[in-house]
């Protein structure tokens, strides 16, 4: 079974630009979550999508947005990039989560974004 | 708010030594899940274990073992007879609905 895939793996942008990252979950997984990893802040939750609906959102500005398609593939977009957005962006998929019943999340290799 | 504390930041051991990675968590939920992930230099987070709050049984998987103690809000991870391939960053995480709250991670270096 193929794992979580993320494209592109590396990206270099300049301040003010916008960027779109893509994530394809494990086949059959309907929940997709996004995380930002930086040396200073560690791993921080961005948002989670399930059946094309955003179910949970972290404390990030509105410049960070996402969506999920009917095939469970997800994209996240960052507009008006800032230097501080340089990070490893990780996508994770899981079978489902219902209330407090939780399935483990499987992570992709990440997209390393550098903002110059 | 949920919180995960991994007080150790870096640990260095010689191969074949046993090493324990500590994790302390805070939550007001009565039902929750705890996780350990490994992040090798390649960057991908690898799932190691999930434990729910109602199951305090310790678990052993090969050289890995986990000790969950609800009374002290701890979920510690021990690697027995460490190997160079165990060198990685290890994260403890706590679930809150569909969100994982991670600790800062522990960098483990295993020297030959």
What does this structure look like?
- The complex is a heterodimer of chains A (116) and B (112).
- With 116 residues, chain A is mainly beta.
- Chain A is built from no helices and 13 strands.
- The model of chain A has no long low-confidence stretch (mean pLDDT 92).
- Chain B is mainly beta.
- Chain B has no helices and 12 strands.
- In chain B, β7 (59-61) and β8 (64-69) form a beta hairpin.
- The model of chain B has no long low-confidence stretch (mean pLDDT 93).
- The chains are: A mainly beta (116), B mainly beta (112).
- At the A-B interface, β4, β5, β9 and β12 of A face β5, β6, β10 and β11 of B.
Helix and strand composition category of chain A: mainly beta
The SSE order of chain B reads EEEEEEEEEEEE
Structural class of chain B: mainly beta
Series of secondary-structure elements of chain A, N-terminal to C-terminal = EEEEEEEEEEEEE
The residue ranges of chain B in which pLDDT falls below 50 over 5 or more consecutive positions are none
Global shape of chain B: globular
Largest sheet of chain B: 6 strands, mixed
Note the gap between the termini of chain B. 41 Å
- Give the CA-CA distance, first to last residue of chain A: 37 Å
Kindly estimate the percentage of residues of chain B that lie in beta strands according to DSSP.
Answer: over 45%
Number of discrete helical segments of chain A:
0
Q: Describe the oligomeric state of these chains in a short phrase.
A: heterodimer
Total strand segments of chain B:
12
Estimated share of beta-strand residues of chain A: over 45%
Helical proportion of chain B? under 10%
Using only C-alpha atoms, the radius of gyration of chain B works out to: 14 Å
Low-confidence stretches of chain A: none
Mean pLDDT of chain B: 93
Global Rg of chain A: 14 Å
Q: In one word, what is the shape of chain A?
A: globular
Name the average pLDDT of chain A: 92
Structure summary:
By secondary structure, chain A is an all-beta fold.
């Amino acid at each position: 079974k193929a794992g979580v895939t993320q494209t592109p793996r590396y990206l270099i942008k300049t301040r003010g630009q916008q960027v779109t990252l893509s994530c394809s979950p494990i086949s059959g997984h309907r929940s997709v979550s996004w995380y930002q990893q930086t040396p200073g802040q560690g791993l921080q939750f961005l948002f989670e999508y399930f059946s094309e609906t955003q179910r949970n959102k972290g404390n990030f500005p509105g410049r960070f947005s996402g969506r999920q398609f009917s095939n469970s593939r997800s994209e996240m977009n960052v507009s008006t990039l800032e230097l501080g957005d340089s990070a490893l962006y990780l996508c994770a998929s899981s079978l489902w989560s219902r209330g407090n019943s939780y399935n483990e999340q499987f992570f992709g290799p990440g997209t390393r974004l550098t903002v110059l | 708010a949920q919180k995960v504390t991994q007080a150790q930041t870096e640990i260095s051991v010689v191969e074949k030594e046993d090493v324990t990675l500590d994790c302390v968590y805070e939550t007001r939920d009565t039902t929750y899940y705890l996780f350990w992930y490994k992040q090798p230099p390649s960057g991908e987070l690898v799932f190691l274990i999930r434990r729910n709050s109602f199951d305090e049984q310790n678990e052993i998987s090969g050289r890995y073992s986990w000790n969950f103690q609800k009374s002290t809000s701890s979920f510690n991870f021990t690697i027995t007879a460490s190997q160079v391939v165990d060198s990685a960053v290890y994260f403890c995480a706590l679930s809150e609905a569909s969100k994982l709250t991670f600790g800062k991670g522990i960098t483990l270096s295993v020297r030959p």
